[in-house]
């Protein structure tokens, strides 16, 4: 990493552990990373495995850092921010990153002040295995801050900047919810094989590796997804027969409707905060 800043993570849950793990793996100095959490167990684990600084006091880590990553559950965010606002007086000098789902940037301004610089990041669960897809958006950070945060989240997968928070909702409905769609699809494919006599273990092994292989091919190829599909679909062959079933049942409409339903729910949830 080129830009090394003192960074404080508020909350030491699954996401923080993955992101900090990715940062350390990419060579970010552990002595520049601070993590706070109310219960000590996760902190002890992170301190012993990664060598980062830890504290049970959010304010103590924030005071030492240039960057704050808010990584608590959305329902706790207002209370955590109120405590920070009442005890830290130079918040406008720090870069604030939030990974909480659903809470929009204007809401953070009501919590932390109009003059904050904030970046919202929407990671997804494959970040836990270093294969995440994180969406990022800001209304206030400059290019240097954006490059810094991109590098941090590149440590747990790929990053994609979007233009506004409506687009982040769409990204959340595709990449955030997407692992569940793929698991649903993989499960149904595996069950298809099981109906024809495959045992569950072998059905799963064959489906997950095929999924991984197809994703890797898509990543490495310049072809469109449609052309990649055509490449493995010889006319009159068995794949063509299988694909025909998906097309007859209109998989495209099903997927588009699923994304629209998840976007709608994201927007409803944003209204809750
Ligand atoms: N997991 C995902 O795939 C994912 C994807 C996108 C966005 N996110 C967002 O990422 C955030 C964190 O998610 P997560 O999955 O890492 O959740 P998590 O594993 O439940 O972690 C949340 C952590 O916050 C700690 N905490 C509770 N109260 C606190 C306080 N007052 N001050 C500081 N820390 C406090 C909890 O500590 P204790 O356990 O000791 O109470 C816990 O370690 C959430 O806002 C979520 O919406 C998660």
UniProtKB/TrEMBL annotation:
GO terms for molecular function: pyrroline-5-carboxylate reductase activity. Residues 165-269 form the Pyrroline-5-carboxylate reductase dimerisation domain. GO terms for biological process: L-proline biosynthetic process. It catalyses: L-proline + NAD(+) = (S)-1-pyrroline-5-carboxylate + NADH + 2 H(+); L-proline + NADP(+) = (S)-1-pyrroline-5-carboxylate + NADPH + 2 H(+). It comes from the Bacteria. InterPro entries: 6-PGluconate_DH-like_C_sf (IPR008927), NAD(P)-bd_dom_sf (IPR036291), P5C_Rdtase_cat_N (IPR028939), P5CR_dimer (IPR029036), Pyrroline-COOH_reductase (IPR000304). Its main location: cytoplasm. Residues 6-102 form the Pyrroline-5-carboxylate reductase catalytic N-terminal domain. Catalyzes the reduction of 1-pyrroline-5-carboxylate (PCA) to L-proline. This is Pyrroline-5-carboxylate reductase. It comes from Idiomarina fontislapidosi. The lineage of its organism: Bacteria, Pseudomonadati, Pseudomonadota, Gammaproteobacteria, Alteromonadales.
């Amino acid at each position: 990493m080129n830009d090394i800043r003192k960074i404080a993570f508020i909350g030491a849950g699954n996401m923080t552990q993955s992101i900090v793990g990715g940062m350390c793996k990419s060579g970010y100095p552990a002595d520049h990373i601070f993590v706070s959490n109310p219960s000590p167990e996760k902190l002890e684990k992170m301190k012993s495995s990664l060598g980062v600084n830890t504290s049970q006091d959010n304010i103590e880590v924030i005071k030492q850092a240039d960057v704050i990553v808010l990584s608590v559950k959305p329902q706790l965010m207002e209370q955590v921010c109120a405590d920070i606002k009442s005890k830290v007086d130079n918040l406008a000098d720090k870069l604030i990153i939030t990974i909480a789902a659903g809470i929009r940037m204007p809401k953070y301004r009501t919590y932390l002040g109009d003059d904050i610089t904030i970046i919202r990041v929407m990671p997804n669960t494959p970040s836990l295995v270093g294969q995440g897809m994180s969406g990022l958006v800001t209304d206030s950070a400059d290019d240097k801050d954006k490059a810094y945060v991109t590098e941090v989240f590149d440590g747990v997968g790929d990053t994609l900047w979007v233009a506004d928070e409506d687009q982040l909702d769409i990204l959340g409905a595709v990449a955030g919810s997407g692992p569940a769609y793929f698991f649903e699809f993989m499960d149904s494919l595996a069950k298809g094989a099981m109906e024809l006599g495959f045992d569950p273990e072998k059905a799963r092994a064959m489906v997950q590796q095929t999924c991984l292989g197809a994703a890797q091919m898509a990543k490495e190829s310049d072809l469109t997804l449609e052309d990649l599909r055509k490449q493995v679909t010889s006319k009159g062959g068995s794949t063509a027969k299988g694909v025909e079933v998906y097309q007859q049942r209109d998989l495209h409409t099903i997927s588009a409707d699923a994304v629209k339903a998840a976007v709608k729910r994201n927007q409803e949830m944003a209204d809750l905060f």
